[in-house]
Amino acid sequence: MNAAANPAPSMLSSASSSHGLHLGLWAVQGVLALVFMGVGLVKLFTPYELLASQVAWVGAAPVALVRFIGLSEVLGALGLVLPAATRIKPVLTGLAALGLTLVMVLAVGVHVVRGEGYVLALPLLLGVLAAFVAWGRLTQVTLDARHEAFIARKIA
């Protein structure tokens, strides 16, 4: 009997767990992309005075910094989805997640320094989720490897 036709049970469980992780990563990437796109666009296009009246830390930050953070979040959101979806430089998805993790680490630091402990939950959660995507896409379920395996199966 051909071993390739009947893979060992451990190979099947490994493949299914990898598939589950892949789907979980896509779900988290989608949620993060929506969140970061939304908050990034707000920081980019809301008049500074209005934003400063609604978000405490904005009033203490220069306009250029607020806009830069917004741009970083929008580009990060695009980076979470587009490279992976198009398979064009998919490693950028993991790197975008790393960048967003850094943005959230810095956000936590700012809120701690400002004594705004009441707002730490969201940047902590987003940072952990972004770190999960970075870990998953850079070390566990790399899209390049999946694509190469898919092509190899089609050729064989």
UniProtKB/TrEMBL annotation:
It holds the Pfam family DoxX_2. GO terms for cellular component: membrane. It is found in: Membrane. Its main location: membrane. It is a multi-pass membrane protein. It comes from the Bacteria. Keywords: Membrane, Transmembrane, Transmembrane helix. The chain crosses the membrane at residues 21-45, 65-84, 91-112, 118-138. This is DoxX family protein. It comes from Cystobacter fuscus.
